[in-house]
Specification:
four-stranded antiparallel beta sheet; EC 3.4.19.9; Rossmann fold; globular; alpha/beta; GATASE; binds 2-acetamido-2-deoxy-beta-D-glucopyranose; eight-stranded mixed beta sheet; 2 domains; about 375 residues
């Protein structure tokens, strides 16, 4: 009854031409609200009947204590400057396209950059501060970068095995590297023609989207994914469904959710979800639709933006389930806010903004002095 009155009045309150009619009524209602507020805690408790929610002295009921609402996602930097040497020629340079950072931030998490070529103990220390990890796109498939991806991936599996729910998103190159690592086959990748193109996503027969990144998509949007070009591709390599499923290790680790077709009508695996871990790998780029403008073929329709938003929300919702509670000050010391992005879209980079890391980083020097 009271709720009805409140929403009724606020509807009219925003319609300024009618506001004057309602002013006397509003005064009456706000008097009533004072009374209601004093009791709302009790009202909400009985409404939800949930004993696990602690009694709150404020008007806002406590949120689910099992969920961590201050999650932090580690993003691994990739070799290079992200701008074809226009920012740095240093062989030590690595970068994170800011679109991945915005993707994570848009869903309610903060980012700690995991700088791939920092001393391993520093990188692992930073990894201990996060509730989820993201591997970006790129080209590096060997050397230190490959080894670090493998090391971080192992740590994520270990932490999940130990009972923490720590999600991983592996995007584009990330899917390819996980395929190489899990299959234990350095030659698992095949060539595909999917550079700079928007595509549809084809769900495999009887794909079960429950508990996956697609769980939050409306039936309408799921349908549109298979008919409209709502996702961005930019890759020369991939794995065909046959190779993927023929490899026992890959087939037992991942469930294939979607495939795509390249410019030569060759089919590749495009979204996979781990059977027993909160690990999702994408051959496509969920982060680009909302945050990259360099290529004219990147989809920016409202549907396409929803794809980005749902994908970001799923990662962060999984990270909130992580039971890692890192020391607040150490998190602050290492957040990406210790770095400034550079606008590179204007000078022709494929990324609009990049975070550039040239070692040793300030954050790591600081950390090193305290180790
Ligand atoms: C990197 O080297 C190239 C070729 O020598 C040069 O044109 C470019 O300006 C250099 N970039 C930077 C950031 O110094």
């Amino acid at each position: 009854m009271l709720n009805d009155a409140v929403s009724f009045s606020s509807t009219y309150f925003s319609t300024s031409s009618f506001a004057y009619i309602w002013i006397p009524l509003l005064i009456l209602i706000s008097k009533d609200l004072g009374f209601a507020n004093a009791q709302s805690g009790i009202f909400l408790q009985s409404k939800f009947g949930d004993d696990s929610v602690p009694l709150s002295t404020s008007n806002c009921p406590a949120t689910n204590p099992r969920l961590y609402n201050r999650p932090v996602i580690g993003i691994l930097s990739h070799p290079g400057d992200g701008a074809s040497f226009r920012l740095s020629n240093s062989t030590d340079a690595s970068f994170i396209a800011a679109s991945y950072v915005k993707f994570v931030e848009s869903a309610g998490a903060r980012v700690i950059p995991l700088i791939y070529n920092e001393p391993l103990e520093i990188l692992l220390k930073k990894l201990s501060l996060v509730n989820g990890v993201l591997f970006t796109g790129g080209w590096a498939k060997s050397g230190l970068y490959y080894d670090i991806v493998e090391e971080v991936f192992k740590k994520i599996l270990e932490r999940n095995d130990a009972g923490e729910n720590i999600p991983l998103y592996a995007i584009c190159l990330g899917l390819q590297l996980l395929s190489m690592i899990i299959s234990k086959d350095q030659n698992i990748l095949e060539g595909f023609s999917a550079v700079n193109q928007a595509s549809t996503l084809q769900f495999v027969k009887n794909a079960d989207v429950k508990g996956t990144v697609f769980q939050r998509f409306s039936p309408d949007l799921l349908e549109k994914l298979s008919t409209d070009c709502l996702v961005m591709q930019n890759h020369r390599f991939g794995v065909s469904p046959k190779r993927f499923l023929d490899n026992q290790n890959l087939a037992s680790f991942f469930r294939v959710l979607t495939t795509c077709i390249d410019e030569d009508d060759k089919v590749y695996v495009s979204t996979v979800h781990a059977r027993n871990y909160p690990v999702t790998a994408f051959q496509w780029h969920p982060e680009k639709n909302a945050f990259e403008w360099g290529s004219s073929v990147i989809p920016h329709s409202e549907d396409a933006i929803q794809v980005t938003q749902h994908a970001a929300n799923f990662l962060v919702s999984e990270a909130r389930k992580s039971n890692n509670r890192p020391p607040a000050q150490e998190v602050l010391n290492n957040l990406i806010y210790n770095y400034a992005p550079t606008y590179t879209g204007k000078i022709g980079s494929e990324y609009d903004e990049v975070y550039l890391f040239t070692s040793p980083s300030t954050a790591s020097t600081e950390l090193l002095s305290r180790l």
